Amino acid sequence: MSLDNETVEKLGNSILSIASVLRKIQGRQSEALDMLENIGTSIINDPTTLPRLAPYGYCQDCGKLGSNRERSPNGDTTCSAGHKYPSTAALETPKP
Ligand SMILES: [Zn+2]
Predict the structure, then answer these.
(1) What pLDDT does 46 receive?
(2) How much distance in Å is there from the Cα of 75 to the middle of ligand 1?
(3) How far is the CA of 31 from the centre of ligand 1 (A)?
(4) For the chain, which terminus, N or C, has the lower number of CB atoms within 10 Å?
């Protein structure tokens, strides 16, 4: 199996994303693991785009990563702690 240059570049960028996650979240391992799972899922579901660190944003209640999103336009997102909220209310950055 050989990889073309584009694939190698995406792979490299994904690894850099993972490294930046680990660097950013020292001491917050469970959140880092959530982010890594999201990165892996992004790569598997859509290998043509670079994974975003938080494709579903963050919970408006507890600030954890959104882990599941309904596909309808007015669908809800569920965070990794189980809160359910409108997808449009998801935060783009984690709560401090
Ligand atoms: Zn939550």
Answers:
(1) 66
(2) 16
(3) 12
(4) N
Q: Separation of 47 CA from ligand 1 center, angstroms? A: 28
The C-alpha atoms of residue 41 and residue 3 are separated, in whole angstroms, by 20
Torsion sign, CA atoms 90, 49, 39, 45: positive
Integer Cα distance of 9 and 49 in angstroms: 11
54-70 confidence digits (pLDDT tens)? 778 889 999 888 888 88
Q: For tokens 């984690």, what's the residue?
A: 94
pTM of the predicted model as reported, rounded to 2 decimal places: 0.46
DSSP 81-96: T--EEEGGG-BSS---
